[in-house]
Amino acid sequence: MENMLHGAPTTTTPTSLPGCFVFPPDQLVPATTAAVSLPVVDMSRSRDEVRRAILDAGKELGFFEVVNHGVPEQLMRDMEAVGAEFFGMPAADKAGFYSEDVNIPNRLYSGTIYETGGEQYWRDCLRLAYDFPAGDHVKDWPDQPQRLREIAGEYVVKARGVGMELLHLVCEAIGLRPHYFEGGISGGDVVLHVNHYPTCPDPSATLGLPPHCDRNLITVLLPGAVHGLEVAYNGDWIKVEPGPGALVVNFGQQLEVVTNGMLKSIEHRVTTSSELARTSVATFIMPAGDCLIGPAEEFVGEDNPPLYRTLTFAEFKRTYNVVKLGASINLARDLKNAQKKI
124-130 and 229-233: which strand pairing? Predict the structure, then answer.
């Protein structure tokens, strides 16, 4: 567990849950008892089958898992291992990367700093930005563990490739021009979140991440072996149990805007465990800040008016930050309402 004392993280192991982590019971509605498997998109199938599977899964649940995706199994395991190794290093070795400044692209931050007060979430995160295709940001990544730069650099390129191929297939499935998601709309930094959820004294009273929708275009998640992801479905929460070797994919809010609500960005959250720490790795494909994003012309017309405002991604992020400042557990709902045209 990371804790901030005099500006630097130090290691502590709380035996009880500090009060600022505790949510009101009505904000911690438990998921259904059984874990469920997400719809599976097998990318080795015919292109037509894969397109239909993506569209069906996207409309039904907004989340799906992909198999035979081309990311080597060993690379996935190495990425999980090097992430866990980073968070296992002594606090002093990580202190130089620690920052609460959201404008720093590569940084370590922690939701487990409870001296500062306010509502906290039981998660630590190493945020790494990759300026595709050059990769110049890699030199600013931590140089320990020894292979972190090499493994994370290779992994983020592969994961982005999966996301972009899925976006091409989405275009074919819904009638967008083939290269709609090339250029500025996918031209921002690729952002890697190496998430670490330490063992928690009372998982029933807190969350690793609150309900939210991803603000980007599409997310590719390496979920790790320990369960924790939960997805909103039909007024309930369902526990996600990914299959072996699968990556979990969900649509971000910008894809919902482009399709004028046809494809949804779905709320999800992360729970914690008292027995096992969890490490996951999320790859976010982000638009460039000056990219203007609104409903595509293919999805608006006299009988189908635009549901969302057209904004640059930088303007959207400012809206996101304003909403987040006053957010409750309804962050995802409040953010969507802020961007809706009506």
Answer: unpaired
Q: What angle do CA 126, 123, 157 make, to 5 degrees?
A: 35
Q: How far is Cα 179 from Cα 172, in angstroms, rounded to an integer? A: 10
- Measured CA to CA, the distance from residue 180 to residue 188 in angstroms comes to 15
- Number of domains, the chain: 1
Distances in Å between the Cα of 250 and the Cα atoms of 23, 166, 217 are 26, 11, 9
Residue 79's contacts (CB-CB under 8 Å, 6 or more residues apart) are 151, 152, 155, 222, 281
Is 213 within the bounds of a domain?
yes
Helix axes 313-325, 331-339, angle to 10 degrees: 140
Q: Is the pLDDT of residue 217 over 70?
A: yes
CA dist 332 and 252 (Å) reads: 11
Task: Give a yes or no: residue 13 inside a domain.
Answer: no
Residue 313 lies in a domain: yes
Give me the residues paired with residue 196 across strands: 124, 279
pTM for the whole structure = 0.90
CATH number, domain with residue 65: 2.60.120.330
- pLDDT classification of 325: cutoffs 50, 70, 90: very low
Judged by phi (left if over 0) then psi (alpha if -120 to 50, else beta), residue 37 lies in: beta
pLDDT band at 104 (very low <50, low <70, confident <90, very high): very high
Give the residue numbers spanning the domain of 209.
Answer: 25-339
Domain annotation covers residue 7: no
